[in-house]
Amino acid sequence: MPDKTAENKTRIISNEDYFAEVQRMLDQGKEVRIRIKGGSMRPFIEDGDTVVLQAYQGEPLALGSNVLAKDRDKYVFHRFVGKKNGQFVLAGDGNLVLREYVDKAAIVAIGSMHYRKDSLKGKAIDSIGARLGGLAWYHIRLLRRIIAKLTR
Q1: Share of the chain above pLDDT 90, in %
Q2: Is the pTM of this model over 0.85?
Q3: 111: exposed, middle or buried (C-beta count within 10 Å: 0-12, 13-18, 19+)?
Q4: What DSSP designation does 62 have?
Q5: Pairing relation of β-strands 50-55 and 107-115?
């Protein structure tokens, strides 16, 4: 029986190269599925889950959308929670305080589907219900901070 481990090796590349390839594929009009790294989108999206992205073409962005954006020199996949002084305000669902403020040109893609790392079944994250649920979670951040302090 042939050894298939060589085919299944994980290859590590720089974020710069990875996202350049993601951008290239989006520019070609393709949907791109990426793995989420980190816990900033918990409880809705966990470390190791994947999301499907579609290129952002400058269309009006629905409040509560999950977007891939370049914030300074790093890429973030966070929720669009509002606008302030002409900038888009992004926040990770798991972040109690931190927000990013980015220009329209910094938004690379919009998330449309979410796949848990242990499931083949996807869930739409661009539906009105998913967006409103995420926004509700964002707007109870003060309550979540108080509960976090009391349970420590």
Answers
A1: 82
A2: yes
A3: buried
A4: P
A5: antiparallel
pLDDT of 1 over the 50 cut? no
The residue type found at 113 is M
The tens digit of pLDDT for each residue in 83-109 reads 999 999 999 999 999 999 999 999 999
99 closest CA partner among 118, 86, 80, 75: 80
Percent helix, strand and coil across the chain, each to the nearest 5: 25, 30, 45
Please give the average per-residue pLDDT across 21-46, as a whole number: 96
- Token pair 């349970």 is found at 151
CB atoms within 10 A of CB 97: 7
Confirm if 134 and 64 have CB atoms less than 8 A apart.
Answer: yes
- Token representation of residue 135: 């926004």
Residue 114 in tokens: 């979410």
